[in-house]
Amino acid sequence: MKPKIFVARAVFPEVLERLAQHFDVESNQEDRIFTADELIAKVQGKAGLFSTPSEPVSAALFAANPQLKAVCNMAVGYNNIDVAAATKAGVQATNTPDVLNETTADFGWALLMATARRVTESEHWLRAGHWKKWSYDSFTGPDVHGSTLGIIGMGRIGQAIARRSLGFDMNVLYHNRSQLAPELEARANNAKYVGKEELLRTADHVILVLPYSKESHHTIKAADLALMKPQATLINLARGGIVDDAALIAALRDKKIAAAGLDVFENEPAFNPDFLGLSNVVLTPHIASASTPTRLAMANCAADNLIAALSGKTPPNLLNR
Ligand code: DGY
């Protein structure tokens, strides 16, 4: 008999077919985000759970499902999974690193360019019929080329963002839990390791790509925003809780910083409606990894992990320590 698994959200049909060769698959046909209790009920009797960043996979889920052996997240970020509780419950937890680095870095640039060069703001204005003449000061803003880029979180995605900055003649500063090896700094456009305060004071554009955890909660709050240059931009590609959204809204409203580009939000898919009243923020719905090939690679990577875990092998991207 094939082991039973639950696929928590809609996924590529070819990946579901692949999973079905190994498992007795039940999947979320409605593609709605289940409540914690609904998810616990769906996982009853299942050996594996294929999850996404939208499902909180908690100690309560493990306690209610002692038969569960593996939870495989289709994301590099895994703050939705209580990995310590998984380890205690003997459940293998996995993520999908690497396959999304370059696509996510591309999107970091898209968001930075759109934010600094006011792409979406000016497009909304044009669509609303306001364009009557060319003006010397229409939608002017900071330059990207030749400026200083500050990257907070210099993992593989941060390094991929830094590599791209070479073509823009940028100076790169980074802040990270630890300093990179000299050869990695050299490949990352000679990025210079600095303290968070120096980075925030000096950078023209700040990109957040660090993992979310209790320690990184509100890495950027009012006091940090106050350090930034008034013409600076802030880009968040990581997780919503890394920025205090209320403090950011105040800083954008009071022009303490020029603009922000946000792909992630505290409590997403809900977000603070005050963002909608601000013209100096670019808002996207958590799509940094959303190229078709990369999303397919992520789904296959999660499937590889689940297949390995439930056939007694060590999954390639095991998170339990
Ligand atoms: C990740 O992989 O963590 C992304 O945020 C999901 O696209």
SSE blueprint and pairings:
Blueprint: E1 4-7, H1 13-22, E2 24-27, H2 36-42, E3 48-51, H3 59-64, E4 70-73, H4 83-88, E5 92-94, H5 101-116, H6 119-127, E6 148-152, H7 156-164, E7 171-175, H8 182-187, E8 192-193, H9 196-202, E9 205-208, H10 222-227, E10 233-236, H11 245-253, E11 259-262, E12 281-283, H12 292-309
Parallel strand pairs: 1-2, 1-3, 3-4, 4-5, 6-7, 6-9, 7-8, 9-10, 10-11, 11-12
Helix pairs in contact: 1-12, 5-7
(2R)-2,3-dihydroxypropanoic acid is lined by residues 53, 75-77, 100, 289.
The largest beta-sheet arranges its strands as 8-7-6-9-10-11-12
Which spans of ≥5 residues are poorly predicted at pLDDT below 50? none
- Order of helix and strand elements from N to C terminus: EHEHEHEHEHHEHEHEHEHEHEEH
Q: List bound small molecules.
A: (2R)-2,3-dihydroxypropanoic acid
Helical stretch count? Answer: 12
Write up this protein.
By secondary structure, the chain is of the alpha/beta class. It folds into 2 domains: 4-97 and 292-309, NAD(P)-binding Rossmann-like Domain (Rossmann fold); 101-283, NAD(P)-binding Rossmann-like Domain (Rossmann fold). Helices cover 34% and strands 14% of the residues. It contains 12 helices and 12 strands. A 7-stranded parallel β-sheet has the order 8-7-6-9-10-11-12, with helices on both faces. Helix 5 crosses helix 7 (156-164). The radius of gyration is 21 Å and the shape is globular. The chain starts with a strand and ends in a 12-residue tail after the last helix. Bound molecules: (2R)-2,3-dihydroxypropanoic acid (DGY). (2R)-2,3-dihydroxypropanoic acid (DGY) binds next to loops. InterPro entries: D-isomer_2-hydroxyacid_DH, D-isomer_2_OHA_DH_cat_dom, D-isomer_DH_CS1, D-isomer_DH_NAD-bd, NAD(P)-bd_dom_sf. Belongs to the D-isomer specific 2-hydroxyacid dehydrogenase family. Pfam families: 2-Hacid_dh, 2-Hacid_dh_C. This is 2-hydroxyacid dehydrogenase. Keywords: Oxidoreductase.
